[in-house]
Sequence to fold (66 residues):
Amino acid sequence: MKQKKRELMMQELGKYSLDMSKLIFGGVILAGIMNLGVEAIYLFGVGGTLVAFFAVIGFVFYSKSR
Fold:
Protein backbone atom coordinates (compact mmCIF):
# COMPACT_ATOMS: atom_id res chain seq x y z
CA MET A 1 0.00 0.00 0.00
CA LYS A 2 2.85 2.39 0.79
CA GLN A 3 4.38 1.93 -2.69
CA LYS A 4 1.04 2.77 -4.34
CA LYS A 5 0.75 5.94 -2.25
CA ARG A 6 4.29 6.98 -3.23
CA GLU A 7 3.53 6.41 -6.93
CA LEU A 8 0.36 8.46 -6.66
CA MET A 9 2.20 11.29 -4.92
CA MET A 10 4.94 11.32 -7.59
CA GLN A 11 2.30 11.40 -10.32
CA GLU A 12 0.49 14.33 -8.68
CA LEU A 13 3.76 16.23 -8.20
CA GLY A 14 4.51 15.69 -11.86
CA LYS A 15 1.12 17.01 -12.90
CA TYR A 16 1.50 20.00 -10.57
CA SER A 17 4.93 20.88 -11.98
CA LEU A 18 3.68 20.61 -15.57
CA ASP A 19 0.72 22.85 -14.70
CA MET A 20 3.08 25.40 -13.15
CA SER A 21 5.14 25.30 -16.33
CA LYS A 22 2.05 26.06 -18.42
CA LEU A 23 0.97 28.89 -16.12
CA ILE A 24 4.41 30.51 -16.21
CA PHE A 25 4.45 30.24 -20.00
CA GLY A 26 1.06 31.94 -20.18
CA GLY A 27 2.20 34.66 -17.79
CA VAL A 28 5.30 35.37 -19.86
CA ILE A 29 3.24 35.63 -23.05
CA LEU A 30 0.69 37.93 -21.39
CA ALA A 31 3.40 40.13 -19.90
CA GLY A 32 5.03 40.38 -23.32
CA ILE A 33 1.75 41.33 -25.00
CA MET A 34 0.81 43.92 -22.38
CA ASN A 35 4.14 45.80 -22.66
CA LEU A 36 4.57 46.22 -18.92
CA GLY A 37 7.93 47.90 -19.29
CA VAL A 38 9.90 44.76 -18.53
CA GLU A 39 12.99 44.18 -20.63
CA ALA A 40 12.04 41.54 -23.21
CA ILE A 41 15.35 39.66 -22.98
CA TYR A 42 14.98 39.24 -19.22
CA LEU A 43 11.30 38.40 -19.46
CA PHE A 44 11.74 35.66 -22.06
CA GLY A 45 15.09 34.50 -20.66
CA VAL A 46 13.98 34.02 -17.07
CA GLY A 47 10.50 32.89 -18.10
CA GLY A 48 11.83 30.36 -20.59
CA THR A 49 14.30 29.03 -18.05
CA LEU A 50 11.58 28.57 -15.44
CA VAL A 51 9.23 26.93 -17.94
CA ALA A 52 11.95 24.47 -18.97
CA PHE A 53 12.89 23.80 -15.32
CA PHE A 54 9.34 23.03 -14.21
CA ALA A 55 8.67 20.95 -17.33
CA VAL A 56 11.77 18.82 -16.75
CA ILE A 57 10.97 18.40 -13.05
CA GLY A 58 7.39 17.47 -13.94
CA PHE A 59 8.48 14.83 -16.43
CA VAL A 60 11.00 13.41 -13.95
CA PHE A 61 8.35 13.09 -11.24
CA TYR A 62 5.86 11.64 -13.69
CA SER A 63 8.33 9.06 -14.99
CA LYS A 64 9.22 8.00 -11.42
CA SER A 65 5.55 7.32 -10.74
CA ARG A 66 5.53 4.43 -13.21
The two ends are 15 Å apart (CA to CA). The mean pLDDT is 92. The helical segments are 2-34, 40-64. Residues 24 and 51 are 6 Å apart (CA to CA).
